[in-house]
Amino acid sequence: xxxxxxxxxxxxxxxxxxxxxxxDGDCVGSVLGCYLYLKSVLKNVTIHPYLENISGSFSxxxxxxxxxxxxxxxxxxxxxxxxxxxxxxxRLGKCEDIFRAAKRTVAFDHHITNTEFxxxxxxxxxxxxxxxxxxxxxxxAAIDLPIAEALYIGILxxxxxxxxxxxxxxxxxxxxxLMSKGxxxxxxxxxxxxxxxxxxxxxxGLALDKAELELGGKVIVTVLTLADxxxxxAKINDTEGIVSELRTTExxxxxxxxxxxxxxxxxxxxxxxxxxxxxxxxxxxxxxxxKMAAGFTAAGSLNELLTQLYALIMLQF
Length: 317
Ligand SMILES: [Mn+2]
Fold this sequence. Notes:
Layout: H1 5-9, E1 14-18, H2 25-41, E2 46-50, E3 80-84, H3 96-101, E4 104-109, E5 120-123, H4 130-135, H5 145-158, H6 169-179, H7 185-194, H8 198-210, E6 212-214, E7 219-224, H9 226-231, H10 242-247, E8 254-262, E9 265-272, H11 278-283, E10 288-289, E11 293-299, H12 302-314
Parallel strand pairs: 1-2, 1-3, 3-4, 4-5, 7-8
Antiparallel strand pairs: 6-7, 8-9, 9-11, 10-11
């Protein structure tokens, strides 16, 4: 039997909650799910959620108005700080120092590369998402519709609408239970997953147009440079989901999407179709993630970085 979240936080009078930089669905869903749950089950406790620039895909979720996006450092350190969906402490970004200052720390995560940086770590690499891990620590009767929606969104995004191999029987049982709370699933799936802004659509179009096959067709790669991003008026968040589109190309083992975020500073997103462990490859560049989905940031010559990347991929063929 898992320990319940309210027992894990015990007698903390002040609680901070945060996810990772560039929050995705699982990060936003787990932070809000955790926040809404603690707010409903705890009395006379100050709970403060932090998230950076939240994508419009999550604007339907409850609790967003309470989220601190300015990363105000509290005068007094928190009694307890909860990290969600972070594989390592640096992923907390602007919250890293606030987290370090807290009297006690707890982390919930599902990254196989998790470094167990908190005082207490609940890490399950077999779980689809942090939302699935968190669900295992919530008293079911205390889960209301807004909490269920937040967790559902997290699982939805980390499973690519229940199609990635991380989707297990347990995942679907969790989702089934969440649905029993009355979620309008068709609307949520469309609004949070499939709906694109026009600039997201243009970024996807340009990325597909620029895609190239490497290593005999086993690797597909697309690079969007700063100039590309500027030409279509795209922002960093507008490229989410591109690498998953690349992955479904016939014959491809690894999909690579590269985005230039600063001059000669690149964000690599990798997806595998099963043979290649992209978490292992990303770790070689100081990044992390999962066997089938991982990434890293690297500076330098793009051609050299790609050459190194292909060499590492080839070792696994
Ligand atoms: Mn996640």
